[in-house]
Write a structure and sequence with these properties.
2 strands; 78% helix
Length: 228
């Protein structure tokens, strides 16, 4: 462990260790304290994402609008039978989709950056300590180290935070913004709609032909179907 890491963990220790002092029982206090550390890393990670999102909001909105535009143009081009225009528009849509995908991936990864620091601090504090689990788990048995316990409690903290998010004013505001993008994506035209439109057109044309067919021809057509 380098000098700067040691100094960092000593600073974190002054705050994180307080989470372990709420209860007198050392085992229960460890689980409660580790859960609170995990919950703090979830909040810090989510707050970091929100700041990155707000800083790049105009760029993300621009990509979102460009994706809708080029996707819809490619669908309209294939509907018009213009293969060259379709290829050009589809290439643009794929290019922008790649940018949107990697930005989403970067945001997801950014939420995890506090985890290595929390685990580093736990190594500084609880290295080589095995703790009894409340129940025996497959592949783990009845004891586990700090890393396993932290990961399990981090997953639990993420689930709880996701449930609380809509009730936290700041994160609720971010959720509303993101929901707006999801709503915008409903403007994306799909090839499934194109196929449905073509199918509806065929059905309408068939009905039109049947209406224009003289009744005696319809009867003949019906009778011919039931002759064996």
């Amino acid at each position: 462990m380098s000098t700067w890491e040691l100094k960092l963990y000593q600073i974190l220790d002054s705050g994180f260790i307080l989470f372990y002092r709420f209860l007198p029982d050392p085992i229960i206090a460890f689980f409660v304290g580790t859960f609170l550390v995990a919950f703090a890393t979830v909040i810090i990670g989510e707050f970091s994402i929100s700041l990155a999102f707000l800083a790049n909001r105009e760029y993300v909105e621009g990509l979102n609008n460009e994706l809708i535009k080029w996707n819809n143009l490619s669908v309209e081009a294939i509907e018009a039978g213009d293969k060259e225009a379709y290829k050009s528009c589809n290439d643009q849509a794929n290019n922008i989709f790649g940018k949107v995908f990697f930005i989403s991936l970067a945001y997801a990864a950014a939420s995890l950056w506090p985890v290595p620091f929390a685990l580093g601090w736990m190594q500084y504090r609880f290295q080589n300590i095995e703790l009894p689990l409340p129940v025996s788990l497959p592949y783990l048995g009845q004891t586990a180290g700090y890393t396993t316990i932290f990961i399990l409690l981090y997953i639990l903290a993420r689930i709880i935070f996701a449930q609380l998010k809509p009730y936290l004013p700041y994160f609720k505001k971010i959720e509303v913004m993101l929901a707006g993008y999801v709503q915008e994506r409903t403007k994306l035209k799909s090839f499934a709609e194109l196929l449905k439109k073509a199918e509806d057109k065929k059905i309408a044309q068939a009905k039109s032909r049947n209406r224009s067919m003289p009744s005696n021809k319809i009867n003949l057509a019906i009778n011919s179907k039931f002759q064996f």
